[in-house]
Amino acid sequence: MLSLNDTPFQPATLQLTGILGMQAGHAWVALVFCILYLISITGNLSILALVVREPALHQPMYYFLSMLSLNDLGVSFSTLPTVLATFCFNYRHVGFDACLVQMFFIHTFSFMESGILLAMSFDRFVAICDPLRYAAVLTNSRILAMGLGILAKSFITLFPFPFLVKRLPFCKGRILHHSYCLHPDLMKVACGDIHVNNIYGLFVVIFTYGVDSVFILLSYALILRAVLAIASQEQRLKALNTCMSHICAVLAFYVPIIAVSMIHRFWKSAPPVVHVMMSNVYLFVPPMLNPIIYSVKTKEIRRGIFKILHKSQS
After folding, report:
1. Alpha-carbon gap, residue 157 to 200, rounded angstroms
2. Cα angle at 201 between 197 and 205, to 5 degrees?
3. Are the C-beta atoms of 184 and 158 separated by less than 8 Å?
4. What value does the mean pLDDT take over residues 129-148?
5. Which of 307, 280, 306, 253 is closest to 36 using CA atoms?
6. pTM of the model
7. Residue 275: pLDDT band with limits 50, 70, 90
8. Domains plus CATH for the chain?
């Protein structure tokens, strides 16, 4: 039966779920999510504040890091309303149009992160392979243009998604399998011809994750060749050490994506909780890990943190 607010094709609301099989422990799950959000939001805001306050961090590498932190905040705030409503207040309903908006922003920020990591790999490539022209190549205007280009690319490629979903009838129920809205999840409850959605979704994944990852690998192949050409082993290690933070951030982002894809492709009989947990790792772990990685591995960030702590104690 359709309610008065429903159309013959679309429900007025969709129902979100927590983590299947763990309903009894939702209070603990809510605590875990709150801790993840607290670490992610505090860490990324701290990175942004450090870059703004410290003149020594007004360099291309840290401008790109600021973009990454802003994007990670976008990921966190995109999922936060429905996740907290589901786990903390047991409110599981989300409006259909609100669900489409959330889906758009979650996917947009996710694809933007891939583009920012590619820009950061280019930054490391120029710093190591052509250090004398580093400041001339990565000017403030070019960094801004790269950031706007990443934003435009993600926005334009993801913009059709809500409209492609909205044209579909939904007759397989209203229950989604996550505490937030994702395009693949919506496709599971849609009926009608979803070939266009699947084909366009595959195109977007290849055009973003696929192309970006190939160029990141190419950048590091060229970086490795340049590093191996350095005569001094100490200088080799020093050059590679400047890339470690970025390599860890790339792994934190791409490993969960690859794991989700492998499970979906080769382990279709996996329990639903496995798919849900991997999707949560994919969305929640990188925004939490990135500020930790850069705080631990980057001397200038650590120095800025110690400087602020020292001022607060004096």
Report:
1. 9
2. 175
3. no
4. 94
5. 280
6. 0.92
7. confident
8. 13-307 (1.20.1070.10)
